[in-house]
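From the pipeline queue, job 12 of 40. The input is one protein chain; the requested action is below.

Action: predict structure.
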Amino acid sequence: MAWISSDYVSKEITAIAWKFIGEESQVGCALLGPEAYGGTNTVDMLTQFRTAYDRADMVTGHYIKGYDLPMVNGMLMEYGLPPLSDKLAQDTKIDLVPRAGISASQENIGAMLGLVNPKVKMNQTTWRSANRLEPEGLKMTRERVVGDVLQHIEMRQRLLELGYLKSPSVWKCTSELPAYVP
């Protein structure tokens, strides 16, 4: 949400989306921003996600172990909230079979597999609008995160069918924290 130098920007969660596989429910989405545009404040956004996370037996995502879950934990820390609990997780980037010569981005794998659900693209102008919490930027952000979830579900299923994913493993957060000694 802020320019630091060159092409580096700070990392700030603007939206989180999720869906329970096998349930008919729509994709859940918590969006930062004005309530008039479907948004909420940061703590409520994190709380909505934590409720879904705690309900899940397993979480999946593309780079969820290396980026998404640590990002959520960082924001939880910033707001003085407890970290996420340990959870069985399957990551369609980290748990992808060893390979060389192909990009492991969700967009690339989705295109390579010929998925129905496309990657919703956002350019720098759109991201700036989203980071400013402007109505059009928030609308695109919602489309992006919901689209990522739908594409991920389709991609993960296809990768499982092809035998390209390793087994899920427990993403550890709390059990690896050292005991506090005053």
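Job complete. The mean pLDDT is 90.
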